[in-house]
User: Which sequence fits this backbone?
């Protein structure tokens, strides 16, 4: 579990550095199974919504699940990390096309980490 957390942090730092220097870093798709079926189902639903360009709807669903405690605490953080890692991989034009912005993603990440008790 600790190794997964470190790998996710490395990927997030890689994304941030890539954005600062204007390069798109290589991002490995995270496909680790979560602790329970509810988390796995939510992950699949979020990824399907993202694939359809329904980022706002996916983000709302993520927040609802975390706020209602529908998924385990560790899974909540990991799901949020996977979600925002994927969203941050999109270019600004695609985000705009989906009526979403990088600022919304940054705010969402900050809010969800507080909900998960990380920050």
Assistant:
């Amino acid at each position: 579990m600790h190794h997964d957390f470190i790998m996710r942090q490395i990927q997030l730092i890689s994304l941030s550095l890539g954005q600062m220097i204007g390069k798109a870093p290589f991002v490995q798709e995270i496909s680790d199974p979560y602790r329970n079926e509810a988390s796995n189902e939510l992950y699949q639903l979020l990824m399907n919504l993202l694939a359809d360009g329904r980022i706002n709807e996916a983000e709302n669903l993520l927040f609802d699940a975390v706020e209602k405690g529908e998924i385990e605490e560790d899974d909540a953080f990991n799901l949020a990390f996977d979600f925002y890692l994927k969203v941050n991989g999109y270019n600004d034009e695609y985000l705009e096309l989906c009526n979403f912005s990088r600022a919304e993603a940054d705010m969402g990440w900050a809010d969800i980490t507080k909900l998960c008790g990380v920050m």
